[in-house]
Design brief:
- This protein is mainly alpha-helical and about 90 residues long.
- The protein has one domain.
- It contains 5 helices and no strands.
- Helix 3 crosses helix 4.
- It is globular and about 40 Å long.
Length: about 90
């Protein structure tokens, strides 16, 4: 749906967990071929903050376990954008 919005000249924001470099690069490359600007905003909260937000929200179905959040966070740490990846995106406006 986001690419349809871009094709129509609109703005699309991808806000799901694009944790992996490969996924971010695929989205960036596809958007670029459509002539869209691409910006990368990377938020990196600690695992305990993520867990607290999940507990407070209480909407996960099935419920998440703390160990799952820790494992996800460790994976995210291995996939953090480096300078080379950041430089592939347009400057954040």
């Amino acid at each position: 749906m986001a690419f349809d919005v871009l094709r129509a000249g609109g703005t699309a924001i991808i806000e799901w967990g694009t944790w992996g470099r490969d996924e971010r690069e695929r989205l960036r490359a596809e958007a670029t071929t459509l002539g869209a600007r691409t910006e990368l905003l990377f938020l990196d909260p600690p695992a305990d903050v993520l867990w607290k937000r999940i507990e407070e929200r209480g909407m996960e179905d099935p419920p998440m376990k703390h160990a799952d959040v820790v494992a996800m966070h460790e994976f995210m740490q291995s996939q953090r954008p480096d300078e080379a990846e950041r430089s592939a995106f347009d400057e954040v406006l």
